[in-house]
Hints:
The complex is a heterodimer of chains A (about 375) and B (about 300).
Chain A: H1 2-28, H2 33-45, H3 48-73, H4 81-98, H5 104-133, H6 137-157, H7 163-168, H8 195-213, H9 215-225, H10 227-232, H11 237-261, H12 281-291, H13 296-320, H14 325-352, H15 359-375
Helix pairs in contact in A: 1-2, 1-14, 2-3, 2-13, 3-8, 3-11, 3-12, 3-13, 4-5, 4-6, 4-11, 4-12, 5-6, 5-11, 8-9, 8-13, 12-13, 12-14, 13-14
Chain B: H1 7-36, H2 44-62, H3 65-89, H4 94-117, E1 129-130, H5 141-145, E2 146-147, H6 149-167, H7 169-179, H8 181-186, H9 191-217, H10 228-238, H11 243-266, H12 274-277, H13 280-292
Antiparallel strand pairs in B: 1-2
Helix pairs in contact in B: 1-6, 1-7, 1-9, 1-10, 1-11, 2-3, 2-4, 2-9, 2-10, 3-4, 3-9, 6-7, 7-9, 10-11, 10-13
Amino acid sequence: MINKLLGGLVPFIAALAAFACGAIMLVALGANPFVGLEAIFDGAFGSGDRIAVTAVRATPLILVGAGITIAFRTNVINIGGESQIIAGALLATVTALALPDLPAVVLIPLIIVAGAVGGGILGAIPGALKAYASVNEILSTIMLNLMMVQFMNYLLRGPLIDPYELQAGTRIPQTQRLSDNAALPSLAGDTRLHLGVLIAVLAAGVAYVILWRTPIGFRLRAVGHSPKAARAAGINVKRNITLALTISGSLAGIAGAILVFGSEGQRMVTDGSATGFTSSAGFNGIVAALFGGLHPLWTVPSAFLFGALLTGATQLQRVLQVPSSLAVAMNGLIVIFVISSSRVRSWLDKTLSDSKLFNKQDDADSSHEEMSQTNG
Amino acid sequence: MGDFFTTSVLVATAASAVRLATPYLLAALGETIGQRSGVLNLGVDGVMMLSAFFAYWTVLETGNMWLGVLVALLVGLMMGVLYGVITVFFEATQGISGIGIFIFGLGFSDLLFRQQVGTPKPIRRLPNIDIPLLSDIPYIGEPLFQRNLMTYAAFALVPVTMIVLNKTTFGLNIRSVGENPQAADSLGVSVERTRFSAIMIGNAFAGLAGAALVLQLGIFQPHLTQGMGFIAVALVYFGAWKPLGVMGGALLFGLVNAVVLQWKALGIIPVSISDLAGMAPAVVTIIALVLLARRVNAPAALTKPFVRS
């Protein structure tokens, strides 16, 4: 029992360590870490509105994170969340531009599907390249991230730019205001909590069901455990690798659609930088998934925590004038600490007990190792 | 297009290709050493951003360029210690821990830049130093022998890396722990120490790459590298884990970037599609990966943590 508790605590110890580093950074920047922590907490949970914003910030992380879970459990590392979010957002945007007059009950499902298709394509490409041409998917997904940012900038500065921006000569890279029929309706009065949040939570549930309650998920996990054994059992390894990245990409693509149609401006907008549209959700989703022990359902609370960190960091910037990128730096540290702690966990495992305690976590670890081996 | 094929423009393009290849080359050489020891470091981009910021900040505050390079080197070494500890001692999954380093570098350099500098101010750029006689050779004099010291250093490190990897005991150790750590271990080679050293060297190179990048540009902005560090990792595959191949790859990428810049300047690529042209390096990388994926042999133990059984 104690062991189980300790195992579950590992991610929190990692988070505490990251927060300690965050506090050191705050001190180094001349800010009071306690005031900083209070600002983060207040910014994230201080009012109903802020909790709603936190949930909205968590939404893309839930979706990307759930997708990451599926990819990682199949032995595939998907670093392409950024490109998949962008592709989903672009396809959803184009759909809404083409069919603005459809009623909301049709248009909203349609843009979500468009997002999934866009992201799915950007997942299928590296998936197929890995499966059929032995191209390392880490590198190909990263290259696709770089490409899609430029492609988005091209579209938003050119073909898709708001005609008003051209007239006024301001040339902000953004689309016109998209059809109100596609706007994700609010779930709670006039807070920003919108349908997208619910969609994300449901999608995480679907990801869980796919992974553990369907033959598809069984095959994916079999490939993740041992491609050789899976092949011997008659499972088409290549097709499943492609499938895993496609599903993973679709979920990220839905996040892209939600980012556009859950936004206050109801349009797709960027600032020309790599993270201008996505706010690094493609990377932060990886953090959320790892923190959630690569379990789709645990990704939900985990993403909520990171959403809180991101929302809180905005408040931190207001109160202490500490740039909100502190949250990004801390996210990096959390990845480092969590990923290092699997070793710590195995020490705990070895020294405290001879039984296999952390089954699910162990799955994740072994799939990591397998993954590393096939990546060479 | 006719404007491009004039001697002066071609020579200028070649010169900027060599200059632009410098950060790629430094980062990819370092990554080669790390990967030959069996360690994939995906954090190069993050290390480059951090070291570029610190080099920039140092030069901004002190005006001393070489102090900036030294500071960048130290930042690289510190990140090397961090990555070494998590990879060698904690046996972290390298693909992910590197992404952690990248995210940290991205966030921390952004944080420091906004907090300490705010608005980008230009700094002095690395001056070009003409090598006597050689720099007067027509056509190749300017691209090859009128470069800055960081460029000369980067290209000088190619043969140095080759010799170290292929002709020294240390290099033999690196290669053996990258191919078969169990065998190396049984022969008394410390896998941990060798990999740790390789990681330190690799990150030091990444630090220098960051310094070269920012000192050649003369300005810093958040997310300065735009994925160069990741392309450097791909260059190692591209160059089949050999310093000379990596150098060829770095030059190719320098050339792609230089041609895109030149074509934009000449209006061959209109402004309206300049973003599309910016996709070129990543597109070339993917094509290269597809063409080369099956033809090269990675170090056998790449990304495998060593556990003494």
